[in-house]
Write a sequence for this structure.
């Protein structure tokens, strides 16, 4: 009798406890510390047990609800190399740890600390000193028109860059910064700001002569009093929730030819404190050419107000589609939806030459504050069409909507709208970037 009782007791022995160093710290290193460390975007650091312990319950809530880590791709479509979402077993570990009092455990169980670089997401090999811009404490309707500034890269030879980070000094006033790489032109002065003053209504929306449109006319100005039309583009961007481009993940690199310049497309939003923002760009570079070349692209839906006009109080307005045809065989490796406050969802679909269709990315709950990029690997034969659909919520149910009673047009401010699918491909080194794709409407990019 006693032997049987003893056997039953051993069958119900206590499970091994979940502890910080053994179970939770590896998860934080892999999925959280990129942002949750000093000098980065997250408001608290997760580098040590002392840092993390006060946030145990909040961390549990964030991961159980899948609010954190931020990841918006529908798992039913596509496969992504940089998937930062936690699997269910990891979520269960975090929840169990928090519910059991968040024990530290034995420090000897801790994984080796990650050697995170100071101030940067990665340690740059080469830093370019970018534009310097005075951002006022306030402006009419909170509008500062987009500014373009040209600066030298400093690359004296053809350079293959494997990652890029655009780093504003004051991210709190930085709406976005996009850069592109262009041949040097003697007619442009370095450090001069170019912008277009647009006619705007009482809420700050653009009102050109023939109705609101992002591409409409305005008064071109420059900081040196000699306005001209500067080059532009969006090959690499600093965006909310998307701070760097790392091509090392896909074993590729982008080419910046010798003597090229960088154009900085700058969008600032005043926050009540005047600052002077100085932008830097950090690159990692290769000593020799890569096996394959990365090329950035950005396309769009129609932008004219006859086709792009979101009606008032419409909770599910379908945008005209963006469409791109591949003129060469390529590997599609990067996808990033971009919309503004009313953006609701975006879906990337490939139609292959044999007629077969495949949804490669669905973001059913777009969040302007987390404009994530998704790395994938899809062979795309010549003749394939990339078709992108999107919906917008211009209703009062959209908590980010500044005014549901207004028709919304395509424009540069966040209270206007955009439908811009970013994407990137890798191709053989000798491929002409300008002959890879053809956009049905407008194409931006094709650099690197």
């Amino acid at each position: 009798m006693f032997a049987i009782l003893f056997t039953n007791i051993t069958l119900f022995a206590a499970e091994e406890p979940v502890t910080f160093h053994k179970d939770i710290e590896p998860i934080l290193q892999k999925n959280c510390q990129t942002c949750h460390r000093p000098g980065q975007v997250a408001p608290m650091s997760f580098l040590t047990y002392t840092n993390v312990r006060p946030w145990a319950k909040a961390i549990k809530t964030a991961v159980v609800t899948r609010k954190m880590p931020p990841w918006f791709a529908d798992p039913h479509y596509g496969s992504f190399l940089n998937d930062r979402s936690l699997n269910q077993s990891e979520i269960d570990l975090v929840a169990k740890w928090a519910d059991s009092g968040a024990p530290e455990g034995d420090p000897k169980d801790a994984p080796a600390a990650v050697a995170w670089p100071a101030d940067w997401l990665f340690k740059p090999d080469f830093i370019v000193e970018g534009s310097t811009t005075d951002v006022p404490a306030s402006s009419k309707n909170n509008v500062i028109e987009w500014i373009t500034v040209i600066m030298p890269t400093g690359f004296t030879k053809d350079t293959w860059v494997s990652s890029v980070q655009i780093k504003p000094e004051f991210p709190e006033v930085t709406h976005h910064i996009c850069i592109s790489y262009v041949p040097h032109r003697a007619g442009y002065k370095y450090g001069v700001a170019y912008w277009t003053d647009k006619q705007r209504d009482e809420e700050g929306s653009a009102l050109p002569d023939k109705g609101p449109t992002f591409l409409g006319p305005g008064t071109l100005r420059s900081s040196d009093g000699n306005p001209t039309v500067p080059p532009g583009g969006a090959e690499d961007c600093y965006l909310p929730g998307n701070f760097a481009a790392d091509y090392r993940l896909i074993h590729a690199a982008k080419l910046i030819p010798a003597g090229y310049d960088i154009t900085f497309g700058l969008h600032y939003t005043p926050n009540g404190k005047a600052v002077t923002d100085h932008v830097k760009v950090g690159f990692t570079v290769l000593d020799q050419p890569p096996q394959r070349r990365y090329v950035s692209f950005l396309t769009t839906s129609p932008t004219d107000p006859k086709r792009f006009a979101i009606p008032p109080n419409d909770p599910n307005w379908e945008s005209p589609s963006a469409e791109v045809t591949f003129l060469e065989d390529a590997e599609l490796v990067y996808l990033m939806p971009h919309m503004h406050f009313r953006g609701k969802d975006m879906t990337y679909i490939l139609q292959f030459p044999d007629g077969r269709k495949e949804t490669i990315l669905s973001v059913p709950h777009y969040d302007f504050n987390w404009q994530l990029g998704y790395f994938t690997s899809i062979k795309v034969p010549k003749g394939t069409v990339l078709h992108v659909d999107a919906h917008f919520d211009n209703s009062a149910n959209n908590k980010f909507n500044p005014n549901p009673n207004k028709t919304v047009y395509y424009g540069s401010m966040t209270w206007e709208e955009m439908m811009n699918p970013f994407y990137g491909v890798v191709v053989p080194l000798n491929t002409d970037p300008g002959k890879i794709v053809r956009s049905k409407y407008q194409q931006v990019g094709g650099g690197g």
